[in-house]
Design a protein that fits this description.
Elements: E1 2-13, E2 16-28, E3 33-37, H1 44-51, E4 59-64, E5 67-68, H2 74-83, E6 85-89, H3 100-105, H4 117-125, H5 141-153, E7 159-163, H6 171-186, E8 190-195, H7 198-201, E9 206-211, E10 214-220
Bound molecules: adenosine-5'-diphosphate (ADP) and magnesium ion.
Magnesium ion (MG) binds at residues 44-45.
Amino acid sequence: MIELINLNKDYTNEEVVTPVLHDINLKIAKGDFLAIMGPSGSGKSTLMHILSFLDTPTSGKYIFQGKDVSSLKDETLATYRNQKVGFVFQSFNLLPKTSVWENVRLPLLYAKDADEKKVDQAIASVELTHRAKYLSNQLSGGEKQRVAIARALVNNPDIIFADEPTGNLDSRSGTQIMAILQKLNAEGHTIILVTHETNTAKHAKRIVRIKDGEIVSDEKNDDQIIAERTKLVK
Ligand code: ADP
Ligand code: MG
């Protein structure tokens, strides 16, 4: 589904060039569950932004579903960002004083044939139906992140990107989030998780380590941790 070929990314600010990614070669198949690991500043978020069509490489190729992304029109890229990928962030990024249901519906506001049943289904898939009418700021951190996952799912994207999704959570809530990501992966969703925590990365099927903008290892995870699905509904 994804292929990066000799991809490089530099940031240029006031004529100062900062090289961030060097010669990245990476293939990601449909249904994979990848963890991208590396210390802070190693280029993980930059790589995720390129993969999710938010940023463009300085050189090299990004092939997505057989198409060279650099050849796509801005309009197509905007549609890809809205429909092919879903995002989950460390800081949840929910609208406060807005209901769970409205938060999850947000990505559908841009869709032509929005089917609001999808909102209910996405909320059910993270087991938050009993909280649908709550305001997002009335929820615990773990619940907020489940709302963010439902919002990422509502357009049935090809890939879910999760950038440090457990970074702001206690360990029990973090485990629940990993259990949900594993369930979604088992249902066929491709997941790309960015983390600097070894224990979190071990929930993935494959671990790619990056350091100073280079891939230093790319291995199947032979001791995958299966997150226990503690009861989510209180
Ligand atoms: P990570 O997510 O692994 O912590 P990032 O991808 O956010 O790393 O950043 C990698 C490097 O790129 C860092 O040194 C950061 O300072 C630099 N960087 C990120 N965004 C920009 C930008 N817009 N302009 C200049 N440098 C940037
Ligand atoms: Mg980052």
